[in-house]
Amino acid sequence: MRILGIDPGVAIVGFGIVEKKGSQLKPVQYGSIQTASDLHMAARLKQIYGATLELIEEYQPACLAIEKLFFNRNVTTAITVGQARGVLLLAAEQKRLSISEYTPLQVKMSVVGYGQAEKRQIQEMVRVLLKLKEIPKPDDVADALAIAITHAHSSTLEKYIYGDTSL
């Protein structure tokens, strides 16, 4: 199963595509979609949408795993990230991907095993779990891979809990 993990944003959208075969995880592709700050918001969203469709078409993931938006103190940031999430979810829905959302706490627990893990710990575990030579940069890329790993772990757990023990 191919999983497209997304860390949403407007300036930078981190993405990570992970292949899950049995209990093995293999990175397929990872990187970021970056938009220029001097563009109007609509143009930036269009760029994110188009690049996401291209990723889906090229790598054919079965599902999209994306970070859940949580409300923070900066309302403006929350709104703009929400707009980016909207076009990302639209692209996935149009390509008929299954969509799963994960909170930062769920990602930390899944990847590190500790809900108060620091960003550096998550990044290092992503590197180790995917057997990468170095931590992916920018941070949004490592976060996207962590979200994909969380979905891979979650789908394994669901199959086990609901009776498919052929893992």
Chart the SSEs and their pairings:
Layout: E1 2-7, E2 12-21, E3 24-34, H1 41-59, E4 63-67, H2 75-94, E5 98-102, H3 104-111, H4 119-129, H5 139-161
Parallel strand pairs: 1-4, 4-5
Antiparallel strand pairs: 1-2, 2-3
Helix pairs in contact: 1-2, 3-5, 4-5
Characterize the structure shown.
The structure is a single chain. With 167 residues, this protein is an alpha/beta fold. The protein has one domain: Nucleotidyltransferase, domain 5, CATH 3.30.420. The protein has a five-stranded mixed β-sheet with strand order 3-2-1-4-5. Helix 1 packs parallel to helix 2, helix 3 crosses helix 5 and helix 4 crosses helix 5. The longest helix is centred in the C-terminal third of the chain and has 23 residues. The chain is globular.
Radius of gyration: 15 Å
Give the total of beta strands: 5
Main sheet, how many strands, which sense, barrel?
5 strands, mixed
Ends distance? 13 Å
Short recap of the structure:
By secondary structure, the protein is an alpha/beta fold.
Tags for this model:
167 residues, Nucleotidyltransferase, domain 5, 22% strand, five-stranded mixed beta sheet
